[in-house]
Each structure stands twice: as structure tokens, then as C-alpha cells.
Amino acid sequence: MKKRILKQSVHIILILSLLFSCLPLYATEGDPGTSVPTIGAEAAILIDAKTGEILFEKNSQDRHFPASITKLMTALLVIENLKPTDMITFSEDAIYGIERGSSHMGMRVGEQISVDQALRCLLLMSANEVANGLAEKVSGSMDNFAVAMTKKAEALGAKGTSFKNPHGLDDEQHYTTAYDMALIAKELFHNEYFLEIMKDVTYQIPPTNKVNEIRYLSQQHKLMNQFSDSKLYRSDVIGGKTGYTDIARHTLVTMAKQGDIELIAVIMKSDTKSGMYTDTTKLLDYGFNAYQTFDLLKENEVITKLPIYSVKSGKLIEFATCDIVASSNESVLVSKNIKTRDIVTNINVPEYLEMGIASDAIVGSIEYLHNNKVLAKSDLKISNINYISSPYTANQPEKPTLTFPISSFLILLILLLVILILLTLFIKRKRKRKFKHKKLKFSKTIK
Q1: What is the pLDDT of residues 49-99, one digit of tens each?
Q2: What is the DSSP letter of 393?
Q3: Is residue 241 part of an annotated ligand binding site?
Q4: 292, 307, 325: which is the final residue of a domain?
């Protein structure tokens, strides 16, 4: 009976072992959230907000009309050039320079609001006349501001972008790419003031010099507004901007953060609003589930040590050592299929350093590679110089000493002289002994 029970137990253990062995230890391409998503929009991209590394892309370099996601660039230039407390007075051109029926806040000619209030109208309600007013405040005119927008885009690496207005209404010469919009969003991602504005799902503009009523604002990005659509809302979304025109169709920029992973998703020319949000959700889920962060370096982390030499009398003399440390923090977002053992580290430093080098000088670099692709790189600098002797003694020049070149001929000559002297002394001593012996013999004979 006991043998039978034991045999059945063994069978059960074997069956369970086979079942568990079939379960994956790590996420695979077939797992929900980790497989490469299928995107319905004409163009899309997902990037690491820290490094700009592309995690997913679909036609990301194709030019499209951006619609109101243009206003992210408008906000960036305003934040860089104006103070939140600066006041804007709306001109007639700003108020009436937009299409009838387009997004607006109903501002009046001569009405005044602060830059802070205007930015909230711009980013939450996508107000086009407010975009015009901000542009005039920064550059004097909307045309001048559009030139500044394009120049800023180029400076950020957005080479496929041309801006012709601050609001994004359709213009044949007003276009961008999903990749370029991701770069613009990346610049805003770590701007504290921008993120503070994004935290406000609702906002109120108090009465102004022209309007006696309170204006109520509400975030239009559904992934950020739990009151607008609780099913779409994501707590990890921290910023973004919606856009739509009949020609551009639906466009969306979304910034999200989970732990130390920061992502930017851009959707361009989606046929439907629901499709735009579905595509964005797929991209974010893919990024957060299929990727992981490796912390490669910490600033001032000791990488190696090097000797410091002084050159004295043509010789290298070690008088100190120093730590070689990383000059920056470096982390990288990589696929969860990659393990730390798969990453190669290359340290590029000289064999030694020479006296007089600055105490914080850059002396080399360290880089991390996977499949010959550089994942991260940092300069290496000097830190903590430790003197073998005191710095004063080590840096003092040696006292001059007399040195003579001694050739083999001179050595031979000296040896010959020594031998000659010894031989002379030996002969003299021998003669002296012989003389004493003769004298003694002579004395004995007389006696």
C-alpha cells in the first residue's frame, strides 16, 4: 500500500514538473503587452524620454500636418522667453486671425491675462487665439514667431519640420513628423513648469478687464482626465497634447512615466479619436512591459585607478595615484530579453598620467555596448589624488649630481693601473725581504 501511494506521488510530481517547465520565466514576444503592437494610425513612434532611443516606429519620418500638437512648440518657446507673471494684451490680429469654428476661449480685443493663464488656455483647451497672443508677446508677430519655432525645431534635431503658425491650423507649408514631435516633447518632458501645468485637469480663469465671468478649463487629453473618461484614464500619463483638423485627422502626443521608465508616444493621422487613444495605449503598454532600465553608472563612481608620474633625469618616477571616476549618471532602457551579462564594457584611459595634470581633468571614457551598438557613454575624470610622498617633496627638483660617462676603455685602464701599483708594491716588498736576509747571513759569518 505504501509503495502504491509513493508511486502515485512520484507520478503527480512528474506531471507538475512538466506543466511548470512549460511556463516561461520571462516575458516573450507572445505575451500581452510585450509583443510589438499593430498600430492603425498612418504614423507613430515610441521613444525613451531620457535618451531619445526609438523603441517603436511606424513611418516616423513621413511628413504630416500636426494640427494642435503644434502648440507644444508654442508652449516651449513661451516658457523659455516669458515669465509666468508677464501680461498679454490681445490684439485684433490675434483674435480674428483664426478660422471660424476652430478652438478658442472667446478672448476680446484688448483683454489682458497673465502668461501663466494663457499657457493653461493653450495646453488644456487648445485655444487658437491665445496661441496667437502668446506668439505676438514673444516675437512681435505671428510670422516672426513661426520662424523662431522652425529654428528651435532644427536645434532640437527636428529636421523634417516647418512651422508657419503658432496654433497648427492647416497650411501646406506647416508640417512635421512623428519623430520630430517626439523630440519636441522630449524637451518639454523634464520642464518642471510645463509638468506643473499638466497636473491641473481643471482650471479657472478669473474675471478680466473685459470679461466679468469665470472661464472654466478642462484637460482635453482623455488619458489624463479621469473625469472625462475613466476607462481611458491612465495615472502614468503626465503630459501631452491633442490635435485635430479635417486634413490632419487625429494627432496625439503623450508623455508617461512608471518608476524610472519615461516614455513619449506620438500618433499622427489616425482616422478616429478612439483609434488614436487605442494606439497610444498599445504603445505605452509595450514600452512599460517589454523594456527595463539598467543603471550603468553613477556620477563620481570609481571605475579604475591610474598612477601619476613625474619625469626626472629622463626617467618616469611614480609620485601619486588617483581615482578615475564617471562624470555623469548613465542608465539605459533595453529589452527585457537582454541580460547584464550581454552588455560589453569598454574603458578607454591611458596607462599613466603625468605630473601637472588638473585635478578634475577628463582623461578618458567608458562605453557600454550590446551587439556592437553603443548604449551609453560617459567621460572619465580624475578624482582623489593620493601622493606617495608629500606633494612638496614630490614636486621638488632633485639636487644636481656629478655624473661621468665611464667607458669600458676607462675601466680597463683603471684596472691596469691598480694591477701595476699592486705589482710594484709586491716587488718592493720582495726586495726588502731579500736584503734583510743577506744582512742577517753576513752578520752570522763575522761572528
Answers
A1: 999 999 999 999 999 999 999 999 999 999 999 999 999 999 999 999 998
A2: H
A3: yes
A4: 292
CA angle 161, 57, 29 (to 5 degrees): 170
- Tell me the residue type at 185: A
Q: Are strands 344-348 and 362-370 parallel, antiparallel or unpaired?
A: antiparallel
In what helix (H) or strand (E) does residue 242 lie, and over which residues does it extend?
Answer: strand 237-245
Q: What size, in residues, is the chain?
A: 447
**Residue 209: phi, psi to the nearest 5?**
-70, -10
SS3 288: helix
Residues 245, 163 share a domain: yes
Grid cell, residue 214, equals 469665470
Residue 211 in grid coordinates: 470679461
**Tens of pLDDT, residues 318-333:** 889 999 999 998 888 9
For residue 38, tell me if it sits in a domain: no
Give the mean model confidence (pLDDT) for residues 271-278.
97
Q: Is 252 part of any domain?
A: yes
Exposure b/e, 53-76, CB count within 10 A at least 16 = b: eebbbbbbeebbbbbbbbbbbbbb
Whether residue 431 lies inside any domain: the answer is no
Nearest to 304 by CA among 380, 389, 386: 380
Report the alpha-carbon distance of residue 66 to residue 250 in Å, rounded: 9
Of 258, 273, 292, the residue that ends a domain is: 292
Both 218 and 334 in a single domain? no
Q: Could you list the residue range(s) of the whole structural domain that residue 59 is in?
A: 43-292
Residue 340 burial class via C-beta count within 10 angstroms: exposed 0-12, middle 13-18, buried 19 and up? exposed
Q: Are residues 273 and 303 in the same domain?
A: no
CA-nearest of 108, 111, 127 to 119 is 127
Which residue is listed with cell 508640417?
A: 175
DSSP 121-176: HHHHH--HHHHHHHHHHHHSSHHHHHHHHHHHHHHTT-TT-B---SS----TT-BB
Mean pLDDT of 139-151: 97
Asked whether 367 and 374 are in contact (CB, 8 A), the reply is: yes
Mean pLDDT lowest for which of 203-207, 222-226, 288-292, 442-446? 442-446
List pLDDT tens digits, range 236-252: 999 999 999 999 999 99
Alpha-carbon gap, residue 46 to 42, rounded angstroms: 14
Catalytic residues: 68, 71, 126
The pLDDT of residue 413:
77
Residues 250 and 332 in one domain: no
Do 75 and 129 belong to one domain? yes
Pairing between strand 353-354 and 302-312?
parallel
339 lies in a domain? Answer: yes
Averaged pLDDT for residues 201-230: 95
